Amino acid sequence: MTEVRRAGAVPASLWERDEEVATITRAVDTLCADRSSPGILLEARGEAGVGKTALLAEARRIAEERGCTVWSARGGETLRSVPFNVVRQLLQPALVSMLPEEAREYLGDWYDIAGPALGIADPGERQADPQGVCDGLVAAVRRLARREWPLVLLVDDAHWADQETLRWLAALAERLDETSVLVVLARRPGDVSGDSARHLEAATAVGRPLAPLNALTPQATAGLTRATLGAHAEAAFCREVWAVTGGNPYETVELLAKVQDSELQPVEAEAAELRALNRTARGGGLVARLEQLGVDSTRFAWAAAILGGGITVDMVARLATLDPADAARCAELLRGARILSVPDPTAGQPGAGDLEFVHPLIATAVYNSIPDALRTAMHGIAAQLVADSGLGAAAASRHLLQVYPDDDQEVVAQLREAAREHLAVGAPDAARRCLERALQEPPLPQSHARVLFELGCATLLTAPATTIGHLRTALAMPGLDGEQRVDAVFRLSQALLHNDQLEEAVRTVEAEAARNPDPSARLRLQAAQYMWEGIHAGETSSPHRSARLAELAATCTGRDNAERALLILRGFDAMTHGESAEEVVELCDRALVNGRLAPGLGWTDTEWGLELPMMLASSYAYADRLDRAEALFTEALRAYESAGWSGGHLSLAHAYVGLGHRRRGRLKEAEQPLRASLRIAERVGRGLPLYWSATCNLVDTLLARGHVEEARTVADQYGFAPPYPSTIVLPDPRPVRGRLLLATGRTKEGINELEAAEKAAAARGRHNPVVVPWATELARALAGEDPGRAAQLATDARRQAERFGTDTAIGEALRCAAALETGQRAVRLAAQAVTYLEASPCQYEHAAARVEYGIAARSAAELDRGLALAESCGADGLAARAREALAAGHAG
């Protein structure tokens, strides 16, 4: 038990907090000891009034005493709908203090991404990617931590922080090992749910909890009472203080202040008065005390509670309809009554205003005391005042969300504008709330469908199932015509795809195309249908799809994006089916404009999405035009990084950059983007097609390097096993997993997996032996137990390779054929494989052919060349095989 202290030894709210203060002190000392020390997150958790705010104030004192930079922020119960509210409080003052040019230079590429969310830069025209904005805010802290070291961030009432801030806080916590900063946050247990709770728990899970903040003991309450009222306070009086307050530090401090104000003597005879005094500190007693200050003061307090943050006497006066002199008088009365106070100037929070509530408990009690109808009306007036002040529709929207629907089209317009502002800074959930509220107003019939469409677009990436309902309703109503209707149908099909309803996505665009009389619109919808069918990995595409697509593409010259899309789709279809690679390249080239993606088909253009350019680049990659493929993959990565898109788009871009390296034979270089892709995919969510792309490519690359155990670890860790996704993954995961099983000695399972790949490829007509190399892998696996079937598989693979016509495909088929032969026939086939693969851009396959030819021909020179190629590729297993062959004297 903490020893009772002498008066003045410690602030009242810090009694019995020695352990917590010592932990904070050690954390500050650790931070200050080394600029490269990892970051620390401390969490103070406790019920209302147990001293969390006082503990953060002590953390500030300790940190500033040691020369730290300290920034602080506080969540607000009525401000949770304001996106980035708390993170702005934390970071904005430092950035605003810089010149605009200095802030831009300091944040670099992140300025245009995170700047709008922080309120220091105007948003761009595009919808911001929430994950990119979150990453930008983490990067901003990392850079500011280096500039302001040692930096301490204090977050009070984190349970009331906005969802966007909590998402950033969780992301920052993940990166604390590389960010030298101390974060101390205080929160109540509970009081948060949904995504906000998930983000808050993720943040605190990696932190260090301080000792639970409990109520004061009777002994400490007695010590605090005597420290405040004098040593003569009688024991019975002290015990009653504890009994009345339950040892709650806030209530104890407030009660003792009222004892002083009332000049009550701290003796047993007066102890009975304590309970009545305590009631005036909270709930109905606080309201009664407020009413005693007069009608004007009550209105002033109500208006301050409505505003919630940035409380200025001028704004409160306008909201409460008070003249300036009366407002100033009310402010003084409320300060004297310990209801409002002047903000701490050392906190440095932006827009802090002239006043703040002494404690969140008081703010909540005052807000809840406002009659419901009046509270709603005051929110409406506040929204208008905020808008008139030039703070924008987004700032006014939190008040509009509280106003009763009243068929007010001005409110609808304001909420739609607020949604656009929220989307522009990366806050789609805030946009969703605004649009859902706009629908309740409701909009006029002629604009109702448009609001639903906007809502569907806002929720596409975050809630595809919800989006489907909104867009279907919108399409069933009048108001969406022409190009906007086509956009809505396309968005609906995208939402169905993201919700794993690919067949429904196909049927949706197919039905709309059949009924749309506009030829250009119909062509776009047909292209969308073929696109969704093209990425479907199952067996349910419409009959004769490839023939119909070829027929349609034959009429296309590439004059508009719908025709270019069909050319890309036809090229991708031809590539996966193993048709002539020359035709594939010719189709893809016709889809470009001066060798580049056409406007509207770019990586960040939303009209078509990323699927088309990915199909285009993949077609080039497997048609041995790796120069064009790599240029497109690199362009995608650069586009998403510069636009701040840090979610699934960036994950796929990294995966395909890795695929480009893997196809080229730069195996070591491939690992880095593939691991980056997997990290992002893990954050976005397991089971999505992008997750499979990252995992499959990494396992494939590790196997090529000869790192079999590491490949198995990755496969086990990330669930690289059936069932497979409904969308196509490049390379096909079944042959990759089959090769992994064979490499780890699970031969029967590996053969079964490759035979399953055979059936799946046959059902879809995908006969490209490079994209789905099941035949060559299965032939090698069956060489011992079923040489006849192995030979037939090798022959079929060679026929398909010659049909496709690339050096890589033919060379790989010849490698397989050579592996099944012996003697001079094996040597001749291996030599032919080397000839083709030497002309191929795929250097790993060339290296493998060299080593195999060297072994078959017993040629030290060929083995040396193969060894050099293998080492340059990072193919450690292949290089070891070459060395073993040389050491064993297999070369003459």
From TrEMBL:
Asked if the record carries the keyword Nucleotide-binding, the reply is yes
Which keywords appear in this protein's UniProt record, sorted alphabetically?
A: ATP-binding, Nucleotide-binding
Q: Write down what this protein is called.
A: AAA family ATPase
Does the keyword Iron-sulfur belong to this entry? no
Q: The Orc1-like AAA ATPase domain covers which part of the protein? A: 16-184
Record the organism.
Answer: Streptomyces hyderabadensis
Give the organism's phylogenetic lineage: Bacteria, Bacillati, Actinomycetota, Actinomycetes, Kitasatosporales
Entry-linked InterPro entries:
AAA_16 (IPR041664), P-loop_NTPase (IPR027417), TPR-like_helical_dom_sf (IPR011990)
